[in-house]
Structures are given as C-alpha cells and as structure tokens.
C-alpha cells in the first residue's frame, strides 16, 4: 500500500475489511463487525466512525463490589449525564439483573426517557421540575427530589390521578447548591408529610467532599432526621454517600442507602483511592476509532491547521478519526497521552481538531489505514487507561466521561 493517502484505496480497504475482516498481504485485524454494530443495527452510523464499547459484566461486578463494601445496603445507582457518558438507556438495561435498588438521574428528561424505554425500576430525579411537569412525574411513577413548596403541585397532580406522588426531600447541610436549609428542614418535612397525596420515600443530602466539614454535615443531617423520626414522621431511606464517601469514610456515612456514581463505572473517586485500591473495580468503557489515513512525512512536510507540526526528520503518522467533538481532550496531543494500535503504545502529537487527531507511528511499518485504535481500553496485553489519558490531558476522568459525545455509537458487550 502506498504511504500517501488515497481516498479510493481507503474506501476499498475498509469495505473489504467489513466483509472479510482482513487486509491484504497476510496481515489481519479484528473483524470490523465484532467491534461495531452491523449496518442494519448501527442507527445509520458508518462502520468506520468512532465508537464506545460498554462491558455489562464490568458494571455488574462493580455494583456487587459496592454492595459488599457497604454491608448489603440498597444501592441507588447514579445515571446522570448520560450515565457518565456510557449511555443512559443501555446502562439502565445492563443493570437490570444487578442488585441495584433504584436509578438516579439529574434531569427530568432522563427519567422520562428511561420510562419510555420500558425501565421499571424506581427512578429518582434529582433535577428541578416545573408545575407543568407534575402530572408526567406522577404518571411516570418517578420519585422526585423536593425542597420547596413546588411539592404542592405534585400533591395536586396525584389527587387528580387518584394516586400518590413519591418524593425524596433534599436537605442542604452546607454544600450550598440546592435543598432546603437544614435549620428549616424540620418544618418543611412536617409540611410535606401532611400532604395527603404525597409519600416521602427518602431524605437525602450531598457532601462537600472536604473531610472535616463532611463530618459536620453528617451531624446536621442526623440531627434533622432523628428529630423527624421522633415526631413520628416517615422520612423513608436516608442517603448521602456518593462514591467518595463510600470509599473514604466510615460506615456511619452510609446511612440507610448509598448513592454511588463514578464507581459504578469502574473508576475511583479520587487519586488517593485509586492508589490505595481498597476495592477492585473494573472499567466498563472503551473508546475506539480507526486510522483513517497512514502516511509518511518527509522533512519540511506539515500537519494540521497553521502547519502546527513541521517534520524535521522522516516521520510516519496515523490520522485517528476522533477529535474534540467526540470528547477527546485537546490536551491529549501536548500532554503525552497515548493510544494502542496492534497491541502497542503510540503517542498522540501535533494537535486535536474537531474530528481528527494524530498518532506518531514512526519506526513501525505494520500500522496501516483501517487499523483499530484504542484510546481508552485494552488491546492485546496493553491498556490505555482513562486515568492516564486524563492526567496527560490535564483534566479529570469525570470530565472526559461526561464530555463524550452522546451521538457516538455505544455497543454493549459481555
């Protein structure tokens, strides 16, 4: 194959790969259909487009590990932000047989989408709602977080439907984001408990993740909920511990249920916990693409806009069909991030554009157009970890996951 790109040759090659799963000259790569969905199943996306793979078995393993660590407490699995980039509906379905008590989302639209997809588990919406949403919330059997007198709209909607609205009362013990202030929470709990068509399924708060202050927050929350119970109020499950509290704090923080997010997907909430690895987790997500072009650069040849890179010596470059529009951090090229091709590590360099990035494969003539490129995940005996990518790009694994383009194809495996 010539070193200079030829679009016609690329189309011919990728078409042959999709049919035969191989390439000329006796070299082979994984069958394209094993890595991506068949054309009839891929929602109109091309077989050479970048894609995400999500391992159902890893999700289930992580849930069971968290269940064991928290003494069998109910797990409210957080699926906000498109299930941390993994795919909202796909993850909900993947967790169907896992020991998860309920699902937590950050927007009402996510809760409604899950119900429309046939998900029957309890769903808690932490996001806001308007009076006009009340009937859909009650009809959809969605548990709604409440902290204002907007809860009365749910009471009215439930009365019309001859039903009861399920709510979780959110208390602000110091994070300062949302929730009824802890000093005012006892009176608010009384008002909610008095509504005839509302049932309190839970009472919760969120920690600041500053250890000393978190203990103060816990004390405030326990004081409020103990007083409510002493008055005979049914306040449902008390929950406060997200992934950081589950890993870094004692059992007294777990309360009646826990609310992990990032750990469900196989990632540690802090770099300290990642180093300690007090609990084994398995990353569920892989981010993959293909080499859309492999070419030789001669001294003086350039790459990208404004001639970002000018070769001082002969180079061999693979163009990856993945850019910042897909969620690849712009800092990947300058921070030393690497990818896997044919089971070997190759660095990103030059820059990252909307749909493309560049991988230096100088000295390796085996890498060719159409090869699978693993940006996050395993290939052969090597791993390109999300943590390493985040560190190289000067960002966090949270931000990379949540920033993955929701239009990327998500394939669930395992």
Give an overview of the whole structure.
With 414 residues, the chain is α/β, with parallel strands linked by helices. It folds into two domains: 7-54 and 284-413, Lyase, Ornithine Decarboxylase, Chain A, domain 1, CATH 2.40.37.10; 70-275, Alpha-Beta Barrel (TIM Barrel), CATH 3.20.20.10. Helices cover 30% and strands 24% of the residues. The chain contains 14 helices and 20 strands. The strands form three sheets. Strands 2, 3, 4, 5, 6, 7, 8, 9 and 10 form a nine-stranded parallel beta sheet that branches. The chain is elongated. Residues 1-42 have low confidence and may be disordered.
Q: Secondary structure elements and their pairing?
A:
Elements: H1 7-20, H2 32-35, E1 51-55, H3 56-69, E2 76-78, H4 80-84, H5 88-94, E3 102-105, H6 108-116, E4 123-125, H7 134-139, E5 143-146, H8 151-160, E6 165-172, E7 180-181, H9 185-193, E8 198-204, H10 211-230, E9 237-241, H11 243-248, E10 257-258, H12 271-276, E11 285-297, E12 302-303, E13 309-310, E14 315-320, E15 338-341, E16 344-352, E17 357-360, E18 372-379, E19 382-384, H13 386-393, H14 397-402, E20 409-413
Helix pairs in contact: 9-10
